[in-house]
Specification:
The chain is mainly alpha-helical and 335 residues long. It has 13 helices and two strands; from the N terminus they run H-H-H-H-H-E-E-H-H-H-H-H-H-H-H. Strands 1-2 form a two-stranded antiparallel sheet. Helix 4 packs antiparallel against helix 9 and helix 7 runs antiparallel to helix 8.
């Protein structure tokens, strides 16, 4: 099992690096450049025109790994990696449509909010029933740290699951705001999902293979996305990434671990919700200099220190590692 996971990680890293070598110049040649919001930090305007949809490189790596390193799992009738890949691809496709609309209209506006929300909701509900059909989940909610299981009605479980999935996907998307931030913060999350089958001595390591592939792919992506970024992952990449993280949490039948494991995503989403709500309630006042939260730090919020993109990257990676370790202690007795 350990060898399979190591192979998935290493090969995905190499594949992503190779794809990126050809993909970035091609995206630049077809002028697939990101339009930067005019109301953002002024220094971000220098990024205008940087190629987007770079997430295609780690998406491609995950697909290849699932159908090469993942073949023994398929032969053993373990399909967790394929379910996670399929679900993430659906969300990646939604992101691709969003990116395509932005590029077509040459502005930072893609699909309408209701269109994205509806597509994401439908995908989430179908995924939950797919996992239920193949025995990956039941209508029980596992409580990390307490190592307890709570029975809840099926309708309530599906509603809660849909909320968690859509919330996770969009929170990861919000985290993708400065160079390398979403990819760097997500690597410890994916590594957590990679090592848990080893900790639990599971015979089915299929989800771990997918997690290892995504971890390696994100490491390879950072070769092009670390500050100063040569390419952005775009909604194609960030929605795929968010879908993958939500899928892995449900494939392990412990979605509530995302409360600690995905703490950075929660902070990003809450800061955006608080900002918008407070702005409307007070007719123009703000809690943060700018939301999501990483922009607040970037613009010198609270302390007056303006965090650079590299400093934000380091901060988020360190916090993500800490909470991945905390999450490990919360679920190590799961099986």
């Amino acid at each position: 099992m350990t060898l399979q996971l190591e192979l998935a990680f290493g090969i995905a890293y190499i594949i992503t690096a190779i794809i990126g070598f050809f993909l970035v110049p091609w995206l630049r040649s077809i002028k697939a450049g990101q339009s930067i919001k005019r109301d953002g930090p002024t220094w971000h305007m220098s990024k205008d025109g940087t190629p987007t949809m770079g997430g295609l490189m780690f998406i491609g790596a995950c697909v290849i790994i699932c159908f090469t390193v993942g073949i023994p799992a398929i032969r053993a009738h373990h399909y967790g990696h394929l379910f996670c890949l399929l679900f993430a691809l659906v969300y990646g496709a939604i992101g691709f449509l969003d990116d395509f609309e932005k590029l077509k209209h040459k502005e930072n506006l893609g699909l309408r909010a209701w269109q994205k929300s509806l597509l994401q909701l439908i995908a989430a509900v179908l995924f939950i029933y797919l996992l239920k059909r193949f025995g990956y989940i039941d209508m029980q909610l596992y409580i990390p740290f307490w190592n307890k299981v709570v029975n809840i009605p099926e309708v309530l479980y599906v509603l809660l699951a849909a909320f968690i999935i859509v919330g996770t996907v969009n929170a990861v998307n919000l985290t993708d705001g400065v160079d390398g931030l979403a990819s760097g913060a997500s690597i410890p999350v994916c590594l957590f999902f990679t090592v848990m089958p080893i900790v639990w001595h599971m015979q089915d390591a299929s989800v771990g293979i997918f997690a290892a592939a995504l971890s390696g792919g994100l490491m390879g992506f950072l070769l092009y996305n670390f500050n100063p970024a040569k390419v952005f992952m775009g909604d194609t990449g960030s929605l795929f990434l968010g879908g993958a993280i939500a899928a892995m949490a449900f494939a392990y039948n412990m979605p509530l671990i995302l409360v600690t494991l995905g703490i950075l995503y929660i902070i990003e989403a809450l800061s955006d919700i608080i900002q918008v709500g407070y702005f409307k309630a007070t007719h123009g006042k703000r809690v943060f200099k700018m939301a999501p939260f990483h922009h607040h730090l970037e613009m010198g919020g609270w302390t007056g220190k303006k965090w650079s993109e590299k400093e934000l990257f380091t901060l988020y990676v360190v916090v993500s590692i800490v909470f991945a370790v905390i999450s490990y202690f919360g679920v190590r007795a799961r099986f």
